[in-house]
Design goal:
It is a single chain. This protein is an alpha/beta fold. The radius of gyration is 32 Å and the shape is elongated. 48% of the residues lie in helices and 12% in strands. Helix 18 crosses helix 20. Helix 7 links the parallel strand 9 and strand 10. The strands form 5 sheets. The chain has a 3-stranded parallel beta sheet with strand order 1-2-3. The chain has a 3-stranded antiparallel beta sheet with strand order 4-5-8. The protein has a two-stranded antiparallel ribbon with strand order 6-7. It has 5 domains: 111 residues, 3-Layer(aba) Sandwich (Rossmann fold), CATH 3.40.50; 113 residues, Glutamyl-tRNA Synthetase, Domain 3 (Glutamyl-tRNA Synthetase, domain 3, Alpha-Beta Complex); 73 residues, Glutamyl-tRNA Synthetase, domain 2, CATH 1.10.1160.10; 53 residues, Glutamate-tRNA synthetase, class I, anticodon-binding domain 1 (Helicase, Ruva Protein, domain 3), CATH 1.10.8.70; 90 residues, Arc Repressor Mutant, subunit A (Orthogonal Bundle), CATH 1.10.10.350. The protein is built from 20 helices and 12 strands. The structure holds glutamic acid. The site of glutamic acid has 7 residues, from loops.
């Protein structure tokens, strides 16, 4: 048997972290088993589905590195298939048209509420006579099509994550609507549970891996597989993603979509790596790995039942690991959009100093966005001074040191950090001061601060930019 799994997002919002994590588990399982990963867009909700959300979902999955083998298939293009299946259910006597008005359904629910009963459809139109049906049609009532649920059934499956799961059919809310707005001769809009089952049968899905919020749907869907005479696939329900206080991660937690994480400066391999850890752990307890490496080791035995707490510190840590080990050219490519967004003017000609800049700053980044602040002083000819940097350049003897450096700069034209080190040594000797004083004063003069990245590397970049002389003159003006 070839394993075939699918991710089936609804394009009613951007690619959600929960959907993306479910996609990761599907992908890992497919790749582990040498199977296929299929992408299906569940866009039957015409009002809420939007093409821009589909675009966001596709680009998010691609960005994370989850290539799919088939699709994207769009449910909106497959409505005939669902209608055929509904017709089959009608023909077999497994479904029927129900003509209840919204007011009648409300009254039914109110009565149930008054008796402290759970809301459910009481199957009152299950056995309408042809005459009753004709009367409702004559009244112009639209019908829904309901699938018969046998309340005496117990539904069980052996969930790959949760073990045996049991549902009483009597808890499923009565006969289930599978199509809306139908008439005696037409079948209206097919609904979610039916469409999913028809697609999963048609696409020969062997394992349905999805969030645990779908457990009740699974019970209903198993009944549909049986009624349609199809083999029931295996099910794996993955744990919810929780925030720090143990609630389901939601918009209130600030970010929910993959593009939010992207905008916050997380890189794809780090986020994909982190999502793998949301509910799964590697047998060797490794925490940093590629999706391919995780796929080699993936199994449902190591997926937790309990909700997975979202841990920002761990995500930041992983992101920093990826950023710190990245080649400067790759890092520059990723950092450029953030620099441009911050309004820094960049041209291709700038690569000669941008590459050393990202090589310098890469090891201190946690998120790509950090580069905006950390590189700010490389983008302006002059710099504002912090109070302690100003105090440093105003110390006795510092003006002479800075003048000495300025003279040496014009006389020796340094082009490497070794040249700059030699220059510092010369000035130190000539001025008869401590080297520490020269270094600290140069840092204050060039960066306007007493903290920052490596002095010599920074200086060389400022020199390439043609900014170092202006900075030294600016510092001298303060003395
Ligand atoms: N369209 C459903 C969702 O976005 C997924 C259903 C499924 O995986 O069966 O939650």
């Amino acid at each position: 048997m070839t394993v075939r799994v699918r991710i089936a997002p609804s394009p009613t919002g951007n690619l959600h972290i929960g959907t993306a994590r479910t996609a990761v588990f599907n992908w890992l399982f497919a790749r582990h088993e040498g199977g296929q990963f299929i992408l299906r867009i569940e866009d039957t909700d015409e009002e809420r589905s939007k093409p821009e959300f589909t675009e966001n979902i596709l680009s998010g999955l691609r960005w994370l590195g989850m290539d799919w083998d088939e699709g994207p298939f769009f449910q909106s293009q497959r409505l005939d298939l669902y209608r055929q299946a509904i017709q089959t259910l009608l023909d077999k006597g497994r479904a029927y048209r129900a003509y209840d008005t919204p007011a009648e359904l409300d009254a039914m629910r109110e009565a149930q509420k008054a008796k402290n009963q759970a809301p459910r459809y009481d199957n009152r139109h299950r056995d309408l006579t042809p005459d009753q049906q004709a009367d409702f049609e004559a009244e112009g009532r639209p019908a829904v099509i309901r699938f018969k649920i046998d309340d005496s059934r117990t539904i069980t499956w052996n969930d790959l994550v949760r073990g045996p799961v049991t549902w009483q059919a009597s808890d499923l809310g009565g006969d289930m609507v599978v199509a809306r707005a139908s008439s005696a001769s037409t079948i209206g809009q097919p609904l979610y549970n039916l469409a999913v089952v028809v697609d999963d049968i048609d696409m020969a899905i062997t394992h349905v891996i999805r969030g645990e919020d779908h457990i009740a749907n699974t019970a209903k869907q198993i009944l549909l597989y049986e009624a349609l005479g199809a083999a029931v696939p295996a099910f794996a329900h993955t744990p919810l993603i929780l925030n720090q206080t143990g609630q389901k991660l939601s918009k209130r937690d600030g970010v929910t979509s993959i593009s939010d994480f992207q905008n916050m400066g997380f890189v794809a391999p780090a986020l994909a790596n982190y999502m793998t850890l949301l509910g799964w752990s590697a047998p060797d307890a490794a925490e940093q790995f590629t999706l391919d490496e995780a796929a080699q080791q993936f199994s449902f035995d190591r997926v937790n039942k309990a909700g997975a707490k979202f841990d920002w510190d761990k995500l930041d840590w992983l992101n920093s690991q990826y950023l710190h080990s990245m080649e400067p050219a790759a890092l520059l490519k990723l950092a450029q959009p953030y620099l441009k967004n911050a309004g820094y003017a960049l041209t291709d000609a700038d690569h000669s100093w941008l590459l050393p800049l990202v090589a310098l700053l890469g090891p201190s980044l946690t998120r790509l966005t950090d580069i905006v602040e950390q590189s700010r002083f490389f983008f302006t000819e002059t710099v504002d001074f912090t109070d302690d940097a100003k105090a440093q350049v105003q110390l006795d003897g510092v003006a002479a040191v800075l003048e000495g450096v300025l003279t040496e700069l014009t006389e020796t034209s340094p082009v490497t950090t070794d040249d700059l080190k030699a220059l510092v040594n010369n000035v130190t000797k000539a001025q008869g001061v401590k080297k520490g004083l020269v270094m600290k004063s140069m840092r204050a003069a060039l960066m306007g601060a007493l903290q920052g990245p490596d002095l010599m590397d920074s200086w060389l970049i400022l020199r390439q930019r043609g900014f170092d002389v202006a900075r030294l003159k600016g510092a001298l003006a303060l003395t």
